[in-house]
Write a structure and sequence with these properties.
Layout (H helix, E strand, L loop, with lengths): L15 H15 L24 H5 L1 E6 L5 E3 L2 E3 L1 H12 L16 E6 L5 H27 L9 H10 L4 E3 L9
Parallel strand pairs: 1-4, 4-5
Antiparallel strand pairs: 1-2, 2-3
Helix pairs in contact: 3-4, 4-5
Length: 181
């Protein structure tokens, strides 16, 4: 008896491309991408008018410089990072008492300038100290005025009043190459 050879059944591969495409689309849609986030800073509007230069205007600005060697210079005096917060608080809350510091809290400006060689760690430490000083003065004013810290306020009018009393005027200048002096 002759044996009839059986053929091997084939797998229908017609829909394999469709399945691969659907899997690709599925993974593209469901995959999340980690986007590095930087510091959120609101920049001032661009104007063509030069800023007014005067002794009074210079009094309102607390100059904070960080050189390439990560040394801190505040108002042309060497300072350690642990004293920066208190110096900033004194500048913001002076209200004209000390003739070397700002006349009012609404006019007080903090100017941060760093060298291109400044380490990122030092920049973040200085920026954190300056931001912490603003947080402290806003919390103290809010506590005295409304009986609760600034971050616990819920009414827009109260938040706006605190921001009006202590506006965050933190100016960052373009980094420069000055070296390690």
């Amino acid at each position: 008896m002759a044996r009839n050879s059986r053929s091997i059944p084939e797998v229908n591969a017609g829909s394999m491309a469709d399945i691969a495409f659907l899997l690709l689309v599925f993974f593209l849609v469901t995959t999340t991408m980690d986007i590095p986030t930087g510091l959120q800073v609101a920049l001032p509007p661009i104007t063509n008018e030069p800023p007014p230069e005067s002794q009074q205007r210079k009094r309102e600005v607390l100059e904070v410089l960080v050189n390439a060697s990560d040394q801190l210079l505040v108002e042309q005096k060497w300072m350690t990072i642990d004293k920066l917060r208190q110096k900033t608080i004194d500048h913001l809350t002076n209200e004209g008492k000390d003739p070397t510091l700002s006349t009012t809290s609404t006019k007080a400006i903090v100017s941060l300038k760093n060298d291109r060689g400044t380490s990122y760690d030092m920049y973040v430490q200085v920026y954190n100290e300056l931001t912490a000083a603003y947080t402290i003065v806003r919390n103290e004013y809010s506590q005295q005025t409304f009986g609760k810290p600034y971050n616990k306020l819920r009414q827009k009018a109260q938040i706006d009043e605190v921001k009006k009393k202590y506006p965050k005027k933190l100016s960052e200048a373009e980094p420069v190459n000055k070296g390690g002096n």
